[in-house]
């Protein structure tokens, strides 16, 4: 059911992105990569880990597909809202007695809805030339920047039930019945045209089970992203 809804939503967005430019705007689309660090943790230490295990920083990275609705105005084109799809890989890490690090490796599939909070960029204004008694357009160059607020659901799937990193992934520390679950993501995106900076919080709504122990992942992530093309090429 979830997979079907995801595919259906993706088809809708791709369809909208190919619609001929409307009078009040157009879709500005791009693809990119992001990578960063995380402080994800379960709501309790998994029972199969050694006593005294503590949360350790993990890694996160994704390929993303961004669809931005851009409004045409007299002075410049302004981004307004958008939808971002991600194929994300992340880890929940625990340090056992400062000698071994155990990972739970996740695939997550977020659908994020974005709203512009602030933006700036190049724009035109009109200057009145008294000598010629006419208005002349004047170009103003400013650093391009947009701040977005985003939030949305995600499907989470543990593809590797974690391992002992120091022993070449041979000691399966978190082996158990771990299923996919539903979660949510929210945060801020700082978009600087050629690169992105993102701060987000993730929360699982449904638990996975390890030896009948319910585990929910949550935590902070910081990512840096690079688009494959100039996302503000029409500004």
Written description of the protein model:
With 235 residues, the chain is mainly β. The chain has a single domain (26-227), classed as Beta Barrel (Porin). The chain is built from one helix and 14 strands; from the N terminus they run H-E-E-E-E-E-E-E-E-E-E-E-E-E-E. It has one helix spanning 2-17; strands spanning 25-38, 41-42, 54-56, 58-72, 77-96, 100-120, 123-129, 134-140, 145-160, 181-191, 196-204, 208-210, 213-215, 217-227. An eight-stranded antiparallel barrel has the order 1-4-5-6-9-10-11-14. Strands 7-8 form a two-stranded antiparallel sheet. The longest helix is centred in the N-terminal third of the chain and has 16 residues, at 2-17.
Question: What are the SSEs and their pairings?
Answer:
Elements: H1 2-17, E1 25-38, E2 41-42, E3 54-56, E4 58-72, E5 77-96, E6 100-120, E7 123-129, E8 134-140, E9 145-160, E10 181-191, E11 196-204, E12 208-210, E13 213-215, E14 217-227
Antiparallel strand pairs: 1-4, 1-14, 2-14, 3-5, 4-5, 5-6, 6-9, 7-8, 9-10, 10-11, 11-14, 12-13
**Low-confidence residue ranges:** 15-23, 163-173
Q: Give the total of beta strands.
A: 14
CATH architecture: Beta Barrel
Strand-residue proportion:
over 45%
User: Strand order within the widest sheet?
Assistant: 1-4-5-6-9-10-11-14
CATH topology: Porin
| Element string (H = helix, E = strand) | HEEEEEEEEEEEEEE
Total domain count: 1
The biggest sheet, with number of strands, parallel, antiparallel or mixed sense and barrel status, is: 8 strands, antiparallel, barrel
Classified by CATH, the class is Mainly Beta
């Amino acid at each position: 059911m979830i997979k079907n809804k995801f595919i259906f939503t993706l088809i809708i967005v791709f369809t909208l992105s190919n619609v001929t430019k409307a009078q009040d705007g157009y879709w500005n689309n791009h693809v990119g990569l992001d990578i960063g660090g995380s402080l994800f943790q379960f709501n309790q230490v998994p029972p199969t880990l050694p006593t005294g295990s503590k949360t350790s920083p993990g890694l996160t990275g994704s390929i993303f597909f961004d669809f931005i609705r851009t409004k045409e105005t007299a002075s410049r084109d302004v981004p307004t809202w958008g939808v971002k799809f991600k194929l994300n890989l992340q880890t929940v890490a625990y340090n056992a007695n400062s000698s071994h690090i155990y990972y739970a490796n996740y695939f997550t599939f977020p659908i994020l809805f974005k709203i512009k909070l602030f933006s700036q960029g190049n724009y035109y204004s009109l200057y009145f030339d008294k000598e010629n008694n006419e208005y002349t357009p004047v170009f103003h160059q400013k650093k391009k920047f947009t701040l977005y607020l985003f939030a949305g659901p995600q499907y989470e799937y543990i593809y590797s039930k974690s391992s002992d990193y120091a022993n070449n992934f041979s000691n399966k520390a978190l082996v158990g019945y771990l299923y996919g679950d539903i979660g949510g993501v929210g945060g801020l995106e700082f978009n600087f045209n050629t690169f992105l900076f993102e701060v987000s919080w993730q929360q699982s709504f449904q638990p996975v089970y390890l030896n009948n122990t319910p585990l929910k992942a949550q935590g902070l992530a910081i990512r840096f992203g690079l688009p494959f093309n100039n996302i503000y090429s029409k500004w």
